[in-house]
Design a protein that fits this description.
five-stranded mixed beta sheet, alpha+beta, single chain
Length: 85
């Protein structure tokens, strides 16, 4: 089953900010692309439960997200940077 992945504006702004401040922009892009790929194909099997959310880590990023199986949708609510800029 394929899921649609949407990002809340706060998550998109954080991702853009991390891309701008880190010297290794390729690492941020690659992690973001891998997170999206995993969430499109198996959001309920990747990541770990985190309260009402799930958290998926792909270095140097972590994504906090919610899965809606009935709608085949994943909503990324937050992106966090795991390293110091």
């Amino acid at each position: 089953m394929r899921y649609t992945v949407v990002h809340d504006p706060i998550a998109l702004n954080a991702l853009a900010r991390y891309w701008m401040i880190l010297s290794d922009r390729q690492a941020v892009s690659a992690a973001s692309n891998e997170i999206d790929r995993l969430l499109r194909t198996m959001p309920d099997r990747c990541g770990v439960p985190f309260g009402a959310f799930r958290e998926l880590t792909v270095h140097p990023l972590a994504a906090l997200y919610v899965v809606s199986p009935a709608d085949c949708m994943v909503r990324v609510v937050s992106i966090m940077l795991l390293i110091q800029p």
